[in-house]
Structures are given as C-alpha cells and as structure tokens.
Design a protein that fits this description.
The chain has 261 residues and is an alpha/beta fold. The protein has helices at residues 5-11, 40-46, 51-72, 91-114, 130-143, 159-175, 186-190, 238-249, and strands at 32-36, 76-83, 118-122, 150-157, 203-206, 225-228. The two termini are 31 Å apart. The structure holds 3-methylbut-3-enyl trihydrogen diphosphate (IPE) (2 copies) and magnesium ion. One 3-methylbut-3-enyl trihydrogen diphosphate binds next to α2.
Length: 261
C-alpha cells in the first residue's frame, strides 16, 4: 500500500516514552491487522457511566485506528463490531449499537473518501434493522472503487455462521454441477467466506484482556499472531497499535516449519 512519509511522521509526532514510530520496521508491517474491539462497557462502568457511553467513546478509537493504519500503509484492517451472539444483550443496548453504526458511518463517509478507504462488511448485514442496512449498503457502494486500505467491519458476524454458510454455498455449487466435491479444497473454502479475496490477518489484537476469540474468524486466524492488551477499547490509541506491531515483529513466524539457522 502507498504511504505518505511526511503525513506518517506527522501523525506519529509526540510519542509517549516507551514507543515511537522508529520502533517498528515499516518494511515488515502486517498486511492485515484485525481487532476485537472489546471493553467499552467496562470502560463506562468504571467511570460510573452507562454502557452506551462506552460505545460512543469507542468510536474515536476506531477512527484513530483507521487513520493510523492508513498512515502506516496497512492493506487491510478488520474490526469486530457486533457478533451473532451480541443480540443477547438488552434490547436498548442492541438498538443503541445499531443506531450508532448507522449515524457514525454517515458521519465518517467523508473520511473514507478523503483517505481512499474501501469498506466491506463481514457478516449477515441483510438481517440488520432497515436504517442500518441502508446506510451500510450506501457505504459499500460509495467506497467500492476506492483503492487504498480495505476496512472490513464485522457486524452480525460469527465464524460458525460464516463456516456453515460456506458449506451451504459450496454444496449448492456442487448440486448445480459447477464444481465436483473433489474440488472443495482450502482455497474453495476461503473463497466462500465473507473474507473472500482478503489476506488472512497476520496480527490479531484484542483489547480489555480477554483471552478468547468469541467466535471471530476461526478459519482465517489459523496462523495469526495474537496481541492481547489490558487497555480497554475506548483508551486504545495509535501508540497501542504501534506496541502491537512491535510485538508482532519480534515473533518468529514458523508456520509449522523450522527457522533456518
Ligand atoms: C465491545 O465492548 C463492543 C461490543 C461488543 C459491541 P463490550 O460492550 O463487550 O464491553 P465489555 O466487554 O462489556 O466491557
Ligand atoms: C466480542 O466481544 C465481540 C465484539 C467485540 C464485537 P464480546 O464482549 O461480545 O465477547 P465475550 O462475550 O466477552 O466473549
Ligand atoms: Mg465485551
């Protein structure tokens, strides 16, 4: 991805003590960074606020993560915003989230145009409330020809639902005589997922300290490096992103092989 070095240096000016742009190798950045944006509710509760205020506060962290990733020249940023299990939350919280998704996207579309960001969704967005779905469809079509970073927002996403859907899509193709069962290999499965065409995440970040996947990208994360931070999502910043990348770059990625000495 193209990078504007001047803008990059400016964006990462005034670093905290422990991390700066110089600590990451710009030639070895993960091409796809994935984030489980967790901890909004706890952030709010700890301050005596309603959980919803945590979701509102989390929006600026996503905006900052998008901008920081664009500045760094990351190809794909994916972010888990609403899981297939999150429907279990109190109705007023679900309603607020759906409303925030729609209003925030309308407000942020100019940023996507300015930064040449292409928006895609992971998950079943057909099942979302009409207002949210319409704004999402508008976001999809208006940014479809953008050639910069791809932002993949996981909304009404669950990996098990995604994998079952892939099995259905593939069996329909077999029944239609388009492919034979023998042609169902790993590439065929990958191309039947919501992430078709995107590289697998190299780095998965989860905020708020939880050590679980919560039904996120089970197939795609097979060889991703994990970075879990206790930072709650509304406190996540460009610096925490750099810390995650620094940690990622310090790992040996063996993919089951051995590192040549
Ligand atoms: C993540 O924050 C946002 C969504 C899942 C929509 P949470 O709302 O899960 O916050 P905690 O985990 O309860 O603190
Ligand atoms: C995962 O967070 C889903 C999103 C961040 C959208 P949750 O807060 O829903 O996950 P659990 O309940 O802690 O596993
Ligand atoms: Mg949570």
């Amino acid at each position: 991805m193209q990078r504007d070095d001047e803008k990059l240096v400016e964006y990462f000016a005034n670093p905290p003590e422990d991390i700066s742009l110089g600590d990451v190798d710009l030639d070895r950045l993960p091409s796809h960074i994935s984030v489980i944006m967790d901890g909004n509710g706890r952030w709010a509760t700890r301050q005596g606020k309603e959980r919803g205020e945590g979701h509102v506060a989390g929006i600026k962290s996503l905006r900052e993560t998008i901008t920081a990733s664009v500045r760094l020249g990351i190809d794909v940023l994916s972010a888990y915003a609403f899981s297939t299990e999150n429907w279990k939350r109190p109705q007023h919280e679900v309603d607020l989230l759906m409303h925030l998704f729609a209003t925030t996207l309308v407000k942020e579309l100019p940023l996507f145009h300015q930064e040449n960001v292409r928006l895609v969704f992971l998950g079943d967005i057909e099942a979302l409330p009409a207002q949210t779905r319409e704004v999402f469809e508008q976001g999809l079509s208006e940014t479809a020809n953008h050639t910069g970073m791809t932002l993949a927002l996981a909304v009404n996403y669950g990996a098990r639902a995604e994998l079952s859907r892939a099995a259905r899509l593939l069996s329909e193709r077999v029944l239609a005589g388009e492919i034979s069962p023998e042609q169902i290999d790993q590439d065929a499965v990958s191309s039947s997922l919501y992430t078709a065409g995107l590289p697998d995440p190299a780095l998965l970040i989860r905020t708020s300290g939880e050590l679980r996947l919560s039904n996120f990208l089970l197939w795609q994360l097979a060889y991703s490096e994990f970075y879990v931070t206790d930072t709650l999502w509304p406190d996540f910043s460009r610096w925490e992103l750099l810390r995650a990348i620094r940690s990622f770059q310090g790992r040996d990625r063996r993919f089951g092989g051995v590192i040549a000495k």
